[in-house]
Structure formats: structure tokens, C-alpha cells
Amino acid sequence: MQAAVQLDFVSVEDYLAGEEHSEVRHDYIGGAVYAMAGGTTEHNQIVGGLYSALRTHLRGKPCRVFMENVKVRLKISGEDIFYYPDVMVGCDPRDTDSLFLRFPKLLIEVLSEATERLDRREKRWSYQTIETLDEYVLVAQDRIEVTIFRRANEWQPEVLNRLDQVARFVSLDFSLPLAAIYEGVRGPA
What mean pLDDT value characterizes the chain? Predict the structure, then answer.
């Protein structure tokens, strides 16, 4: 009996070259390419606000903040994986590639109905294998809810769900009120 052959395998090199010219972003998992869903105005407001607040906080420091169009590269069980986190902070001088980071300190995903399960499970487990990752943050867009997973807390979730609470990004010595995270966002209550 002959083994099945995956006909749609894409090499890392072809994936990276294709992403530079693609109008649609794609995650890459072990040779398979998956198109990403489009975002909402609420998603955009949350991502933009987080990026702006972090960029202001990190000005003059060695860390850099990226949003949506820079990938994180992982290798798990010999498989290459690329994801596009919504917001990512990198501080490691080993990150010299212009298309992706391998050593992020903080990753943030803004949840949608289409991505929440993936972000809460597969991506969380994958991201926790990154040696330099200190915090993984999930931000709901349809309700007030920010969940922070910290390596220092053995990845146990800290859930914040009131606008008067403050999200602490301990790895960056930075705090941001949930009211600021959800500023300008319609709908969550």
C-alpha cells in the first residue's frame, strides 16, 4: 500500500515569498497554508489602541511593538509554524529578520467568534513553547474581557472583566486600564 502524499505542501521559502505579495494574510502550519478571516472595526480599534499605547510606553527602550502584519515563527515537533499575532512585542537582539520574530516577549490576540477557539487553545499551547514569551493576552471584542497568561504564574489565566480594572503587562512594566483598551469600541458591555 502506498502512503498518501500531501499535494498542497508549501515550503517555508514559498510561503514567505507569497506573503510579501498577498492581499490576504495566511497562517502556516507544517507546510499547509490557512487564509485568515478579515477584521471588524471593533477589532481594529482594540488592536490600534493597544499598539499605540505600547509604542508610546516603549519609546526609547530596546523593545519594539508590531501589529497584525508581522509574523511569529515557531518550530514545534520539527514543524515550522507562522502565525500573525494581533500585537507582538519583541526585545531580543536575536530577532533580525524583517518578516517575523522568533523571540517575542508579549503576544496579544483579539478574539472573534471565528478565532476564539483557535486563540484559546492551539495558539496558546504553541505560544507557550516560545522560550522568551513572558505573557500571552487575549482580548474579547464582543464583551469586556481581558485574559492574561503569564509564564511567571505557570500560565494560569488572570481574567479581567470590568472597565475599572487595569491590565498589567508585568514583562514590560506597563499597565493599561480596560477602559482605555475598549475606548471607542461599540458593543461590549
Answer: 92
